[in-house]
Structures are given as C-alpha cells and as structure tokens.
Amino acid sequence: MSEQKVAVVTGGSAGIGETTCRALANDGWKVVVAARRLDMCQQIADEIGGVAVRLDVGDRGSVEKLAELERVDLLVNNAGGAKELDYLRDAQDEDWQWMFETNVMGTMRVTRALYPQLKAAKGLVVNIGSVAGTDAYKGGSGYNAAKHGLRGVTRAFRREEAENGIRVCEIDPGRVKTDFSLNRFKGDEARAREVYEGKHNLTAEDVAEAVRWVASLPAHVNIDTMSIMPVDQAER
What are the record keywords, sorted (predicted)? Predict the structure, then answer.
C-alpha cells in the first residue's frame, strides 16, 4: 500500500462499524472494511475507496489472514454484541460463550495478529466498549462481564505499550439505535423496537465521529476512555 495511512475496522459491514469506515475515509484514511459479510464489506469499500476483507473474529485462521496486511496505522476493534437479557439464574452457556468470544477473545486475536504492523507504525488501537463495561443492569450479567473484560484488556494493553508509542483508547457508547438490539433478541423486532421508542438515542454516526476525532489527534495525545450517552440516559 502507499504512504496513505491505513485503518482496519472490524465489524465494518453495518452500524457503528460502517459509519466509522465512512468517517475515516472522509478524513483521508485508506480503510480496510472487515466483517463476516464480505458482500456488504465490498459494497462499502467500493463506495469509499477502501479494501474489503472477510473476517470472523472467532476464527483464528480468518484473523491470521488479516495479518497479511503490510501496514496498519489504526485498528478499530468494533466487532462485538450481546445475546438476550437473561438473568444469571437463566443464563445460557452458548450465549455467554459467544459474548466472550466476540467481545474479548476476538479483540485479543485481532490486536495480537496486527501487533507487528501497529508497533512499526506507532499506531492507535480504538476498542469499542460500552457503558455496560463500567456499570451493570438487570439481565446484563453476560454482556456486562464481557465488556468489563474488554475494559481490563484495554487498560492493560495501554500500560504495556505506552513505551512503544502505541496509543490505546476505549470508547464506551450508551444507547445507540442500530441493529444491536435486533441481534441481541435474535430477530425479534418488537422487543428491539421497545428499547428505543420514546427515547433520545445516539446514532451510529455519533460514535463514528468520536472515533474519527480520536484518530485525528497528534501522536503524543492518548484519549484513554470516552463515555458517550444520550442526554436522557443519565442513569439506568
């Protein structure tokens, strides 16, 4: 690739990931749009002059393929999600395993795989966390645990790599109106719609603008954490 700076965005085919890809491209980045749905990644990449890559963060082979990129200046670990709103007494092993695999293990795999490129570039890693990683709510124990885990990973990695010039940031959105709840409730549109009705909600663009801004700062500036919530989400 050329001297143009390269950004990799996981979960880049929709929602916060897609809008982040577009915001970064508008700021002059060469964006690698990475997600499981290659056709959607390709459509976005074609529109923004980027590169489409099929990526499943739960598949080590898929992640290792991503590591063939020659240059990475920015990694946005956006792939993640939640499953259901079960109380701990009703927890499903497979839902918890998926949340940890996607939110925690996936972030670890991708960051580890791209570490040589990030170190060479003295790059930036932005992990998309959640206010669920700093607080807890009924029915959220699995997602809370996963996002608290991601927060621990982020803070440790920040300390580990400060001397190498790698910047590490966690952006923690509150209620964002995307397909997040639809995916959480496994396609139940009524339950998903109820989460957002009658409320002021963040948009995916709001979060993407935060990523774009963090990525635009000079190399000596590190935004450790940023919480972004709609005005009516002062408490749960």
Answer: Oxidoreductase
Residues forming beta bridges with residue 186, ordered by sequence position: none
pLDDT, position 234: 83
Nearest CA to 110 out of 35, 170, 172, 30 is that of: 35
Whether the CB-CB separation of 156 and 109 falls below 8 Å is answered with no
Segment-wise mean pLDDT, segments of 10 residues, the chain, 236 residues: 87 98 98 97 98 97 96 98 96 97 98 98 98 95 98 98 98 95 92 94 97 98 97 81
Nearest to 207 by CA among 227, 236, 223, 179: 227
d(CA 166, CA 47): 30
* Tokens at 76, concatenated: 């946005």
pLDDT at residue number 3: 85
Q: pTM to 2 decimals?
A: 0.95
CA distance 80 to 143: 10
What's the rounded Cα separation, in Å, for the pair 5 and 12?
17
Question: So which residues are the catalytic ones?
Answer: 143
Q: Give the chain's end-to-end CA distance (angstroms, integer).
A: 46
Q: Provide the token pair at 24.
A: 């970064």
Q: Name the amino acid, one letter, at 108.
A: M
User: CA 79 to CA 13: how far, in whole Å?
Assistant: 10
